[in-house]
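Fig. S4 source data, part A: sequence.
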Amino acid sequence: MEVFVIVTVLWVFSVCIHEFGHAIVAYWGGDHTVREKGYLTLNPLHYSHPVYSLLMPVIFMVMGGIGLPGGAVYIERHLLRSRWWETAMSLAGVTMQVPLILLIALAFKVGWLHNDPESLSGVSLGFLLQLEISAILLNLLPVPPLDGFQAIAPWLPPDVRERARANANVGIFVVFIALWAVQPVNHAFWNLTYSISETLGVDREMSYVGWQTFRFWEHR
């Protein structure tokens, strides 16, 4: 259960960083309402959404060990000064996750954390690293409502953009099914995730053991 608690707490922290990234760039770009909404406080209560903050992230983490950023900040896009600002705001969330990934990788590189399946900290942070990497890869897909789509949306014809956003729930459902039911997609996604993790110095075994231990209810 320790791994579950450590990973969950740090994951909530990373979600706050992700959403803060969106908010601060939106603020710089002209949407000053984010301050009134409390988005510049790093308070997770201001970033919550019943489905995207609770249900979907838990399902993704339990079923496949995939990190799905679960916050929801509502940006007044019409207040942003340009399409470039809108694109920058959309990509700011995943950008904010990169320093956390590099910090965990550094801890493994210098020996503060070890690639040892018996190490609580190593397993926990190894699994968290996998979640962060998978979250970035997933979020950069050009599928609504993910950030990859939001980044290109300002440059699309208005009718195409609005139709896509109206069907956002379908988009995330298709991604969900593809990752679990279409083996070539599943293999490609995880091979890329593990390749990045191993390049950063973390064995894929650490991620797997972390995911198994995270599901503590299966070991009782």
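Fig. S4 source data, part B ends here. The radius of gyration is 18 Å.
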